């Protein structure tokens, strides 16, 4: 029970990042920079408490991973700008799950048992169906320049997914570092990546400082993800963390005023259900 309670924290923390940051405001580069500053502050506190052993390779790969992560987050913020949080977040999370699982299964051989392939393929099919319904739009609804805006959103999601997947593969499949040790080098890389997106024109404006709160939320989610995995196992921790997409969808609609027609609400409900079941099945696959 304690592990499940721990797993709820990253679900809420990570699921709230999109709508909280968009509620605070700012351009995608300002949102990303502010978030990384908060993550760096959190990482420094963790380092001062834990004092983990550091190495040159940990610093090098940690910084590279952080820069890849910042590319993923910047693209996600841009996609939210064009598509809305309630559409961009499930598409982003789903794309990471689908492509990440396929890369893990095909390239790194993470699926070896028939049951894993059966459940994994079923999960991926459900995620793809979830993609379709969460992004489906009502033809009767009046949109302004919809195709153009959605095109920009999908392009942003493309490099966002590439950044997130590269970061995940680097840390999960290639280099295996202690999460509490690598969090500081990674945070340094995150800030450096965000500075690149700002073209090194650094301005600590109020909206940047406020977005640091989102970085603290990200850090808290990370710590409780580790605690949940230790107490309840990786399958539970992973599955619950992916359910944060529900929080982001509800937050986008309730707090950011993203409107949905009756048809779109029905499609969104179907998409969420498919997404949740798919994510849980992938968690089960990881437990084998």
TrEMBL record:
GO cellular component labels: plasma membrane
What membrane topology does the annotation report for this chain? Multi-pass membrane protein
Which GO molecular-function terms appear in the entry?
Answer: carbohydrate transmembrane transporter activity
Subcellular localization: Cell membrane
Q: Which Pfam families match?
A: Sugar_transport (PF06800)
Check the record and name the InterPro entries matching this protein. EmrE-like (IPR037185), Sugar_transport (IPR010651)
Question: So where does this one cross the membrane?
Answer: 6-25, 32-50, 56-75, 87-109, 115-135, 156-174, 180-200, 212-230, 236-255, 267-285
Which UniProt keywords are present, listed alphabetically? Membrane, Sugar transport, Transmembrane, Transmembrane helix, Transport
Q: Does the keyword Transmembrane helix apply?
A: yes
NCBIfam families referenced in this protein's UniProt entry, alphabetically: RhaT
The family note in this entry says:
Belongs to the GRP transporter (TC 2.A.7.5) family.
Q: Write the protein's name.
A: Sugar transporter
């Amino acid at each position: 029970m304690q592990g499940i309670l721990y797993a709820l924290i990253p679900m809420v923390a990570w699921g709230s990042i999109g709508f909280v940051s968009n509620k605070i405001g700012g351009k995608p580069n300002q949102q990303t920079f502010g978030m990384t500053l908060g993550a760096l502050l959190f990482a420094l506190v963790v380092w001062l408490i834990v004092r983990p052993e550091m190495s040159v390779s940990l610093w090098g790969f940690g910084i590279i991973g952080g820069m890849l992560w910042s590319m993923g987050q910047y693209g996600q913020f841009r996609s939210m700008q064009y598509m809305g949080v309630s559409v961009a977040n499930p598409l982003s999370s789903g794309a990471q799950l689908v492509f990440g699982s396929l890369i893990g299964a095909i390239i790194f051989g993470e699926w070896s048992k028939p049951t894993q392939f059966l459940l994994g393929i079923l999960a991926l099919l459900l995620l793809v169906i979830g993609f379709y319904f969460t992004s489906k739009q009502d033809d009767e609804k009046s949109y302004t320049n919809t195709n153009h805006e959605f095109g920009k959103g999908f392009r942003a999601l493309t490099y966002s997914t590439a950044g997130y997947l590269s970061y995940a593969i680097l840390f999960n499949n290639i280099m295996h570092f202690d999460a509490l040790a690598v969090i500081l080098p990674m945070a340094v890389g995150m800030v450096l990546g965000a500075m690149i997106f700002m073209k090194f024109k650094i301005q600590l404006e109020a909206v940047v400082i406020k977005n640091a709160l989102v970085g603290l939320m990200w850090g808290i989610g990370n710590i409780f993800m580790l605690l949940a995995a230790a107490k309840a196992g990786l399958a539970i921790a992973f599955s619950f963390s992916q359910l944060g997409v529900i929080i982001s969808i509800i937050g986008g609609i309730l707090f950011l005023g993203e409107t949905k027609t009756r048809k779109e609400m029905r499609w969104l409900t179907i998409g969420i259900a498919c997404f949740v079941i798919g994510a849980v099945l992938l968690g089960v696959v990881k437990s084998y």
